[in-house]
């Protein structure tokens, strides 16, 4: 059994994701309103697994999700207050959001196929479904497909690592010719590997028009178009950064992670749906001990299962609520910036710091930047074969003064280093320091 | 957008799950070590999605899960330190734990079937799988089956609402005759509806011996035997309450929710596995930006997906660690009690309070108790038809002084009220108060 000194040892040895020299993965958030919110939430310790279990929990979440959608400039069809079937719900992670979307699209498609072919065995129908994503999408998309037992195709991207309409159109035609039923396309805004952006307008239009073809001779709707903006989504708070989300009004669902870049502590992925009933449906199972006289109310989940339509624990909304209220009070996001309370700095400052790093790297002719720098990630490498960059990575890991990770384009096999501005404490001097460490390592290798 | 006064309104209107007159569902926990742990965890705000992302996170969780298993007296094969393939992992809820088990058993079975029948299409093989549970199991088990797309049969229980070996044996024989492949049996210790206990020894023995029959002519192992002890599991801290878990050494996996009855704030379900690799397998997808030179280390999840083998966020282990250390320091669980720090009371006191309530209810000849009182739940009703108890429930809900919910046995259709000792603040006087409110309502109805 652990003595107290082990806890201290833990605190000393835990990886410091908030150090200004931490440039790996993507940022994760923390802020004092989030900590206060968690304290409140822990003290209340109330479980909102259905509306009746604590009506105020569900209602706070619906209000807050609408508020968040408005702050990001998302289309009205994602709002509860639009009066349609739309609305948002908090999931743990983007992977969980993807899984929900897969399960929703799967069950929706099977229900419609069964209506058209009442003799069809569910597993036979399942075998015909197919979903699409980009070859550069996060591995969690492929994993969600595997968990949902739905076939997925990773489609080729263009030279900017963006999935385009033509690739989707061609894949749909090929699969229809094989008798398969395309049900879902997951587009990514800001891939994990290189922060590439799929063309949501082109993909959304194809998803929308697909069923003018009237495949199956039924009134089935088009493909479900999901947009995963786990990292990049927070940037939509800044109107001047919204270009990358062109066509978002065509999306049937959208998710992003406030825990990445929006001051909310892990875990919090916001999932918005055009038709929430498609997710609610997959969890229908209403035992009597959870029935109540207000069953018309929006139940986030009518059971202690995590997977109704998903909310972990509504009082945790307090955390998000407090953080959002705080950001709003500052008014900074109205000026196109999302503020970091700890440092008084802003998210869009991360973008400027990334551009600063890019300029420093490009000043040395040995290096190249392999993806357009849109937000806080710079993908760079030593020109030439992968081996040189691999050696540079090993040297930097041994050096240990800065922390970053490597990646590789699926399409070209080009290996590169990912430099992410992560910490809210990160300053221009830290960028210059990281650059000097990289140059030192490159010079050492050159000898 | 919400003004600050709305937050205050929320605090005033949120359902108080910790009020001594709250007797609905099952308890949910809160404690000052849990709050301190969350503060620490929020301040560190480090993501442990793989060993390399923060080695100390993963290592704390492995140490803590072993410690927890030992405190509960679980079999050695669930320990990392046993040197086998076993180990524990934190999930959000019991529903999530069930889903993991379904996915693990499904993929394991399909891999083995494919080895025996290389021509088999995955969806055709999937169509042949079948899992079993009790008709009194929580709806989340059925839902997990639905999400995993695996057929499930809810088997009849005996007169004590306990699933017995004979029922499982018969179901397996019936299904094998139909060409189906039984893969999993989920037993419940402490059902949500009435806190009934399945016979784990009988079920475990059948799961274990099933493949002496050598179905499929391969070396496939037996059925996976999972034990869901979401509520009751915490009681295993008290050696004198362990009788209900007889046969637990036959289980291939086990989960319980420390957030229910063990001072840890929501959400925390501890899942232990005899062979963790079967869960790790279902999430295999290792992109390069997550590869590292220490890939032999136990990765709780090698991706930002929630669903690797599942941990939400390793620093949250601090919460559990602090609570557990605190409980240990008190030494109370060694005396057969698990302490509640807020009140100085103990979990086993909840059991005595439930017995006190049972005695009070039974003192009035109009009432009957419909399930043996083992832990903190008393299932009672007015003798006769369901209508009388339904009317009593409506009266109590209108009265609003105490809060409890109703349920119904799946087998007999008998409707009853669930009285749970939930709050750590609950005293004998609160039990007598609740009893007096119920008597008042019954007398009012009798007029």
Q: What's the CATH superfamily of the largest domain in chain A, by name? A: Type I PLP-dependent aspartate aminotransferase-like (Major domain)
Strand content of chain A: 5-15%
Largest protein-protein interface: A-B, 96 and 95 residues
Mean pLDDT of chain A: 83
- Multimerization state: homodimer
The helix count of chain A comes to 14
Radius of gyration of chain A: 23 Å
How far apart lie the N and C ends of chain A? Answer: 51 Å
Task: Please tally the β strands of chain A and state the result.
Answer: 13
The top level CATH class name of the largest domain in chain A: Alpha Beta
Protein architecture, described:
Chains A, B: Homodimer. Chains A, B: Its EC number is 4.1.1.28. Chains A, B: GO terms for molecular function: aromatic-L-amino-acid decarboxylase activity; pyridoxal phosphate binding. Chains A, B: One of its GO terms (cellular component) is cytoplasm. The longest helix of chain A is centred in the first third of the chain and has 23 residues, at 94-116. Chain A has a 7-stranded mixed sheet, with helices on both faces. Chain A has a 4-stranded antiparallel sheet with strand order 10-11-13-12. With 447 residues, chain A is of the alpha/beta class. Helix content of chain A is 39%, strand content 14%. The radius of gyration of chain A is 23 Å and the shape is globular. The first copy, chain A, has 2 domains: 43-327, Type I PLP-dependent aspartate aminotransferase-like (Major domain) (Aspartate Aminotransferase, domain 2, 3-Layer(aba) Sandwich); 345-446, Aspartate Aminotransferase, domain 1 (Alpha-Beta Complex), CATH 3.90.1150.10. Chain A has 14 helices and 13 strands.
